[in-house]
């Protein structure tokens, strides 16, 4: 359904999707990419009313398959100017699917701050000025009071309302975090989208689905997910520190002497911890720590890395507080941490006049977050743009150490000591991203030399990108990926039993390539070039000292060679452009 | 005659390894390469040790038709086409195989079960532009088969072999040699700490040598476990005796399966159970799934 918001009303128009498109793109990130191609005017300003924002559901959501309660959100990113897609989880996904829609696309702009409600009967707009400035969690509570408990809500915080370029959309405390989707929704004067279940999900082979659900659930208790169950993603912190891949002080180092203070192992012993899980999930990766002085905070590796070592901050309470502040404002912790770390280095170098903003200063980190959230004149406004745009304002070579690719800030994986990941970060369509290109898997597998990128690393990066494309489109949580020994075969079996399609593993491999290509084609349409498939100059000019005493070096030539290998592997020309026959396979022509 | 550092060898700074496996093992009475060593073999240990130490390739020079035990991934084998010409021929073959890929090489025999990376690095680091060979005098003996050579020597050595000059001493008369005695070697603090008796050059020639060497306890290794692998109060470093990565994993009750990998001294990541370990090593066991 396409929901056009205008003035004080909204019109929901069905957009019929034929089976060929659904089968070609599955759902989630894949289908959302196709929808953006179809609905986003070329060259559109991401914050313009006509720019579409798509909530996309999936074939598997609503079934009893563990980790399937996820939804994708896609738009042209105000941070990168390219496609961005993010996943979030839980009941919003199930209820959204049960509105009877595979996707809900929002366009237009309301006259005043409003909410969009979608159920099986259609869409409507309700003014909600009372929600202005509220954190997303409070807004969710408020609309539940106002509209009833049957509605599930995806909302933005104040940063989304104010257009911070990396504002998030969240549901039940989980964020569709990357690329500024919250700013896109905020630009439409929409505080929240509410969905209410009104139909049911029918599957083609209920007995097979139940059997698959039982098997997957049992496997989800095995060793492949032990890390997530026992410590959560924060278990990465000490391990990454031990292998010199924990980005520290704006990527000037890859080990952080005070990492143990922030480690999951330490926090588990020192702080009370509770576990939680998304709807329909048997893993339960969320670990919620008590905070000094009361309250609790869910902590993940990426927010601790970005607001801790990356900014040189080691006090866990400062990091907890910063993470909570990001949640309240509704901003992406990775982009916030990366942008502030860049600013801290600018201050050190005398490029920004804010002497209070120093590496390692927790209160300064919180002050910077508040300035960003309010887009206060000067520094807050500058940093709300993200590190690439801010560097273009500051100049003086500061772009060389802005920790971003295509404008999206780097996640917590040091490219110089993870050189498959270096390629994955460079070429991914949404920018520096660890969820669409999990090439670090290859680097940390022991199967190749993580410090010397080459053709094996190219193949690994393509492989992980393909697998992510399918998982993010069916959708299953990638924390489940380790339980699959023959993933494409097993996924094809799942899809057959749910949809009735006679889909095969080879067909899914083609789907993966199609989704990756469709995203690239969208970016090409929006002006991307091969120059965008790179890493910050710092990564290519400055060797990284490892804890072992060796250095890791990633030169521009080596990265370029891997990028060219990636282009070849993807069937692209030297400019990263596809063959017209491959574009025809994308089914983009109306 | 010296070999210029600006000669045919690339000056890329890379160091390689050469293991001479083609000896007759006549005193041992069986192939030294295949001798059991803590669940692995002597050749597997020597080649694995060099592979984890040098940044260039490692090659094994073998006699015509010689069967070798399994080698680590990436280690190459080159054949010595003529048997019985001794180490000069092996060195010539090995240096030639590497001359376009590495500037210098550490050359050793198969039978050095206590060879330590700190020794290898100490010897290689002494091979600067002034010399072509670094020849240790350790344990009262000259150690030409635990020494460093410039790969550009390949044609020189080959020429001498062609002319029947098969004694290594003759080679050292024809190139620039830096000799290092025990004190010079142990001036390196890391080597002094990790191999104070210079056991690196202790070779095993006879069954009794092997028996005595094999009876020594395995080296002491520090093991760290992270994440879910450390649950149940297994946090913090633990010292175990282990000659291989597999033994270290077993000592702390971990399987080296697809869910577990190890980082050796915070550097390369592996799940190779036969990876040789030495005194002073730290092994970090990590969950192979690094998503987050």
Walk me through this protein's architecture.
The complex is a heterodimer of chains A (590) and B (292). Chain A is of the alpha+beta class and 590 residues long. Chain A has three domains: 2-196, Aldehyde ferredoxin oxidoreductase, N-terminal domain (Aldehyde Ferredoxin Oxidoreductase,  A, domain 1, 4-Layer Sandwich), CATH 3.60.9.10; 232-402, Aldehyde Ferredoxin Oxidoreductase Protein, subunit A, domain 2 (Orthogonal Bundle); 415-584, Aldehyde Ferredoxin Oxidoreductase Protein, subunit A, domain 3 (Orthogonal Bundle), CATH 1.10.599.10. Helix content of chain A is 41%, strand content 15%. In chain A, strand 16 and strand 17 form a beta hairpin. In chain A, helix 13 (316-329) packs parallel to helix 15 (362-374). By secondary structure, chain B is α/β, with parallel strands linked by helices. Helix content of chain B is 25%, strand content 23%. Chain B contains nine helices and 15 strands. Chain B has helices spanning 42-51, 86-98, 117-125, 154-162, 168-173, 182-186, 189-194, 207-215, 245-251, and strands at residues 15-20, 36-37, 40-41, 58-62, 76-79, 104-109, 133-138, 141-142, 146-150, 177-181, 220-225, 238-241, 260-264, 269-270, 282-287. In chain B, a hairpin with a 2-residue loop joins strand 2 (36-37) and strand 3. In chain B, helix 2 packs antiparallel against helix 4 (154-162). The longest helix of chain B has 13 residues, at 86-98. Chain B is globular, with a radius of gyration of 19 Å. The N and C termini of chain B lie far apart (59 Å).
């Amino acid at each position: 359904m396409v929901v056009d918001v205008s003035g004080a009303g909204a019109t929901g128009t069905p957009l019929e999707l034929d089976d060929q498109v659904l089968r070609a793109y599955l759902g989630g990130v894949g289908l959302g990419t196709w929808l953006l191609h179809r609905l986003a005017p070329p060259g559109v300003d991401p914050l313009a009313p006509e720019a579409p924002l798509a909530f996309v559901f999936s074939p598997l959501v609503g079934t009893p398959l563990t980790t399937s309660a996820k939804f994708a959100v896609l738009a042209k990113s105000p941070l990168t100017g390219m496609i961005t897609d993010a996943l979030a989880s839980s009941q919003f996904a199930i209820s959204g699917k049960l509105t009877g829609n595979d996707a809900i696309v929002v366009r237009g702009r309301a006259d005043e701050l409003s909410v969009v409600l979608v159920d099986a009967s259609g869409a409507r707009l309700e003014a909600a000025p009372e929600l202005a400035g509220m954190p997303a969690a409070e807004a969710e509570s408020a609309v539940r009071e106002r509209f009833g408990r049957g509605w599930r809500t995806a909302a933005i915080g104040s940063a989304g309302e104010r257009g911070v370029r990396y504002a998030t959309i969240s549901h039940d405390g989980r964020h569709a975090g990357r690329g500024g989707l919250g700013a896109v929704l905020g630009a439409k004067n929409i505080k929240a989208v509410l969905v209410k279940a009104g139909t049911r999900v029918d599957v083609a082979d209920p007995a097979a689905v139940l059997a698959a659900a039982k098997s997957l659930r049992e496997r989800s208790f095995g060793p492949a997910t032990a890390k997530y169950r026992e410590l959560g993603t924060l278990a990465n912190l000490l391990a990454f520190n031990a292998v010199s891949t924990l980005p520290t002080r704006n990527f000037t180092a890859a080990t952080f002497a005070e990492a143990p203070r922030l480690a999951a192992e330490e926090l588990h012993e020192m702080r009370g911890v509770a576990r939680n899980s998304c709807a329909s999930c048997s893993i339960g990766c969320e670990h919620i720590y008590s905070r000094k002085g009361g309250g609790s905070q869910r902590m993940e590796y990426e927010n601790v890395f970005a607001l801790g070592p990356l900014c040189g901050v080691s006090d866990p309470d400062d990091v907890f507080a910063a993470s909570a502040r990001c949640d309240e404002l509704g901003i992406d912790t990775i982009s916030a941490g990366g942008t502030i770390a860049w600013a801290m280095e600018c201050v050190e170098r005398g490029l920004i006049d804010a002497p209070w903003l120093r590496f390692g200063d927790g209160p300064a980190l919180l002050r910077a977050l508040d300035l960003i959230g309010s887009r206060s004149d000067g520094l807050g406004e500058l940093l709300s743009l993200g590190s690439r745009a801010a560097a273009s304002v500051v100049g003086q070579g500061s772009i060389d150490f802005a920790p971003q690719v295509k404008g999206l800030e780097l996640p917590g994986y040091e490219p110089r000591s993870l050189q498959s990941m270096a390629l994955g970060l460079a070429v991914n369509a949404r920018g520096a991203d660890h969820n669409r290109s999990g090439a670090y898997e290859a680097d940390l597998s022991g199967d190749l030399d993580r410090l010397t990128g080459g053709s094996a690393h190219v193949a690994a990066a393509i492989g992980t990108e393909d697998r992510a494309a399918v998982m993010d489109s069916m959708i299953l949580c990638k924390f489940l990926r380790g339980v699959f020994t023959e993933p494409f075969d097993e996924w094809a079996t799942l899809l057959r039993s749910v949809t009735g399609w006679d889909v095969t593993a080879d067909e899914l491999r083609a789907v993966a390539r199609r989704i990756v290509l469709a995203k690239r084609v969208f970016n090409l349409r929006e002006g991307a070039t091969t120059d965008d498939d790179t890493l910050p100059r710092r990564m290519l000019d400055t060797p990284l000292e490892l804890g072992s005493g060796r250095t890791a070096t990633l030169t521009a030539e080596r990265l370029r060679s891997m990028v060219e290998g990636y282009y070849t592997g993807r069937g692209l020309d030297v400019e990263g452009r596809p063959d017209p026959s491959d574009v025809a396979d994308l089914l983009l022509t109306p | 005659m010296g070999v210029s550092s600006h000669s045919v060898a690339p000056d890329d700074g890379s160091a390689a390894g050469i293991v001479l496996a083609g000896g007759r093992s006549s005193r041992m009475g069986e192939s030294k390469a295949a001798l059991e060593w803590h669940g692995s073999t002597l050749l597997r240990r020597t080649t694995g040790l060099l592979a984890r130490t040098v940044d260039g390739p490692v090659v094994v020079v073998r006699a015509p038709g010689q069967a070798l035990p399994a080698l680590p991934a990436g280690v190459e084998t080159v054949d010595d086409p003529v048997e019985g010409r001794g180490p000069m021929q092996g060195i010539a073959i090995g240096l030639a195989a590497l001359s376009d890929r590495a500037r210098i090489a550490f050359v050793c025999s198969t039978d050095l079960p206590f060879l330590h990376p700190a020794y290898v690095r100490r010897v290689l680091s002494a091979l600067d532009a002034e010399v072509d060979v670094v020849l240790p005098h350790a344990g009262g003996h000259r150690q030409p088969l635990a020494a460093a050579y410039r790969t550009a020597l390949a044609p020189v050595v080959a020429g001498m072999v062609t002319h029947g000059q098969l004694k290594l001493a003759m080679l050292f008369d024809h190139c620039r040699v830096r000799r290092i005695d025990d004190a010079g070697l142990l001036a390196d603090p890391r080597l002094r700490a990790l191999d104070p008796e210079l056991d690196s050059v202790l070779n095993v020639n006879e069954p009794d040598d092997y028996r005595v060497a094999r009876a020594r306890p395995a080296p002491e290794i520090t093991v760290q476990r992270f994440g879910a692998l450390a649950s149940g109060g297994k946090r913090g470093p633990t010292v175990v005796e282990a000659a291989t990565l597999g033994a270290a994993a077993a000592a702390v009750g971990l399987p080296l399966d697809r869910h577990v990998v190890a980082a050796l001294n915070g550097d390369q990541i592996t799940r190779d159970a036969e990876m040789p370990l030495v005194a002073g090593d730290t092994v970090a066991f990590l969950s192979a799934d690094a998503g987050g």
